[in-house]
Amino acid sequence: MKITEIEKAEGKLGVLIVGVGGAVASTFIAGTLAARKGLAKPIGSITQLAHIKLKKSEGVTNPKIKEVVPLAELNDIVFGGWDIFPENAYESALHAEVLLQKDLEGIRAEMEAIKPMKGAFDPNYAKRLNGTYTKTGTRWEMVEALRKDIRTFKTENNCSRLVIIWCGSTEIYTKPGIAHSSFANLEKALKSDNHEIAPSICYAYAAIAEGVPFINGAPNLTIDFPALMEFATLEGVPLCGKDFKTGQTMMKTVLAPMIKTRMLGLDGWFSTNILGNRDGEVLDDPDNFKTKEESKLSVIDNILDPELHPELYDDIFHKVRINYYPPRKDNKESWDNIDIVGWMGYPMQLKVNFLCRDSILAAPLCLDLVLFTDLAQRCGFSGIQNWLSFYFKSPMTELGAEPEHDLFVQFIQLKNTLRTIIGEETFDYVDAM
Of 163, 273, 323, 388, which one has the fewest beta carbons inside 10 Å? Predict the structure, then answer.
């Protein structure tokens, strides 16, 4: 990676959110607005709180990342986006019931001003949702309408740059087909209104066509296929995804490396969750859950590498369940039962009970990804940003490359990319925060 010149982070950065009225998006917006007004701390955000060790000639220093990496300022962010329901960001946050009303009052006016544009939607991709505020027309007409929305938002808000982030619901499970195999086939499918093309792909195509970086926070196919990777590289647009790494899977990327590092065996890993927000309702449909399941199941095999260690990991039973339970709303609870094997084959168990808040964990990831993806664009990076794998359950890679799932290896890659960007020497270990 060679950086010749970094475009300065001057002017307004427009952040367009798909699913701007959802729990994750409204929490992300509220926390960012509150942080820049000094009403809350951006806890969980690496861009705002983490330090980075640098090997300066006068000795090792440890400044905050935001003090040495040219990131956009929180005060320069302008929020907008699309949704399939018409409520403004304040109303959406109240409906989501993630944040207390008292924590929204100091930013109420700003949030009420954030009103969604009509979303591109196909109920066949999210059968449990009944969108009332949607675009009409063919796939291609929706793409054209989204492109117009992007240009209009940029002009009306006097933005110098934009980033688009998917915070919408999980779509049904789909595999790449002929329509996804090349850019020419994708355009043909869009123009012929081929319903094998998911709505999320319409957003991604529109973003790339307008030169805007795209972040996929769900396990949907969306940008993880050759046609859009080809398009993004051609247009010089950064992409990253997929599926924000928040609760149970984050724990797996910490615990699985421990098991492997100690050369312990693993017989089985059973994971179950209860969740009551809109995401939980959508995932109650088997077709949508299949998409999430594929994302969650990929982690352990990649970290443990059963082909290299068949005597330890060649026959692991791995099961994942998500159960819709409305009383919990956004407060997810997960249970993991992990059957490990020790010296001379003796069995042991790990049991993890994680009571987390999905949107509270996802919101700082959204902020970091927006700022880092904007940085990537200003550095001239394009295509898949492997260095942002730290943030995703199912990290995207260039075709043919294996993803890295170990949280700490991912963190080294993230920080070393930042060091390279600012012309610093890289480290081969996890430095102190």
Answer: 323
SS3 assignment, position 161: strand
What interhelical angle do 248-261 and 286-304 show, nearest 10? 20
Would the pLDDT of 161 be above 90? yes
* Residue 155 CB burial class (10 angstroms; 0-12, 13-18, ≥19): exposed
DSSP calls for 317-356: EEEEEEEE-GGGTTEEEEEEEEEEE-GGG-EEEEEEEEEE
| Rounded percentage of the chain residues whose pLDDT exceeds 70 | 98
Q: Model confidence over 225-281: pLDDT tens digits?
A: 999 999 999 999 999 999 999 988 999 999 999 999 999 999 999 999 998 877 788
CB burial readout 408-425, b (16+ within 10 A) else e? ebbbbbbbbbbbbbeebe
Q: How far apart are CA 362 and CA 304, in angstroms?
A: 26
Mean pLDDT of the chain: 93
Is the entire prediction scored with pTM above 0.85? Answer: yes
Query: Which class for 156: exposed (0-12), middle (13-18), buried (19 or more C-beta within 10 A)?
Result: exposed
- Which residue would you say has higher pLDDT here, 329 or 256? 256
**Domain architecture of the chain: domains with CATH:** 12-244+360-421 (3.40.50.720), 248-356 (3.30.360.10)
Question: Residue 95 burial by CB count (10 A; 0-12/13-18/19+): exposed, middle or buried?
Answer: middle
Give CA angle at 161 (372, 218), nearest 5°.
50
Which range, of 32-36, 85-89, 274-278, averages the lowest pLDDT? 274-278
Calpha distance 428→433 (Å, rounded)? 15
For residue 422, the 8-state DSSP code is T
Contacts of 163 (CB under 8 A, 6+ apart): 13, 14, 15, 16, 212, 213, 214, 215, 370, 373, 374, 377
